[in-house]
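Deliverable D5.2: sample structural annotation.
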Amino acid sequence: MNAYPRNRWASLAVLALVSVVIGLDTTILNVALPSLARGLSATTSELQWFADSYLLVLAVLLLPAGLLGDLVGRKPMTVVSLVVFGIGSVWSSYAGSPDSLIAARSLMGAGAALVTPLTYSWMMALFPDDERPKAMGVLGGAGFVGMPLGPIVGGWLLDHYFWGSVFLINVPLIVVAVVAGIVLLPSGGRIPGRQVDVPGIVLSALGLAALTYGMIEAPVRGWTDSLVLLTAVGGVVLLVAFGWLETRRREAQALMNMTLWRLPAFTWGAVVMTVASLLGIVAMFTMPTYFQAVLGVNALGSGVRLLPMLAGVVIGIVVGVRLSGSVGYKVAALVGLALVIVGGLLALRTEVTTGYAWVGGWLTLFGAGFGTLMIVGQNLALNTLDESRAGIGGAIVQVMRQTGSVIGIAVLGSALNAAYRDDVDVTGLPGPLADTVRDSVQGGLVVAQKVGANLVYSVKNALVAGIHLQMWLSIGLAVLCTVGALILMPKDLGRVEDRSSSQESPDESYSR
């Protein structure tokens, strides 16, 4: 009989709070950018790096973070990572210059990277097999719910307080999580014989940094820009070299345990979660722009109008967990993909004059599909693992998820920008004004307010055309994934048979 801690659900509450904070911080910055531009006199490039520095450091450190948890132990690493995240939040709140804020956001990304793999490793240690899917649903739901809440919380804070409040809100939550973690979380988690893979760390960090940087810069510089090509292609080459190196190492030596990719459940789980991350970016990051530009609402209003998607995500998580247990992961994944496709097809009927009720309806369906796919992919991949592999397995899955998000922002963001530039009518405008209109929707609306209603309509209509193109690409990807799952995804993945030690006891050093 496994000796799992009696206070495991209280421990889960601590981890869920951490996931909410990290999810919240992923999107809360979006609504604060205009305030940051004014408060710090930041350029467009600096505004971009306020968000991207966090994502870049997060992506680069996830794999080494999984190793650190194995070497040091879950509890001390969890506490340290939360303290790092809290310090970064305070620094961000009172940063006096753009460079200072970029550095502070990087520190926050480091804290988030250190704690993220640990939250999934905790699931293996805290919960027996029959309770784990529900516990992982709660944990995953907390992170997913935090993302749509970001614009809502951020908008309210900016309406009442200074711009630094969007970062300062993290501090009391982190303090609660640190204190509760020290009291509630059990000790243990060190993996005996685990070694530091220095070449693997260097190759993976450089590869992920280069690839992420290339994807971040692509929508701004263009896909044919020499720096974008050099970093993106160089990153892929380094990651291929990293994969080759890891195949030649023993499990205790390797940063990434390549044998995990031989498990169909883990591989398909990671694929499903990556696709979900890429698809979810469309609504999560594009629709606030639609609400503000087309519907004319403020930051808080745009965040509130994402609530249907939030409701859909919650519904999708519940549906995904239940379907996975009753009919298997394959059917659950196909249901999630079907919801995304239907939501996307309905989104194609959205126009400048469309009422919010229609948009809220398809956002709910799209969110339900997104939530279903995310929880199915996460649970499928991580339920495959025993406790000794949970840390690095969680890190791998999160790397795939973050990479999917970054690629989604780059590719789908570029598609929207291209469609917008092609559709907006700048006939008769002087060159500098025409360039301003083409550069961004926000710039286009500023000029249009001075020029006339025809240009206002053209800017809004061009934005909608870009959203339509994004949705067509999303639908196409979902259809391809559906065909792949129907043909290649094994039917019996709902019963995880690849776990090497499903009945092994967790750490003997648990403190009750």
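Annotation notes: The two ends are 16 Å apart (CA to CA). DSSP finds 19 helices and no strands in the chain.
The annotation will be released with the project's public dataset once the embargo ends.
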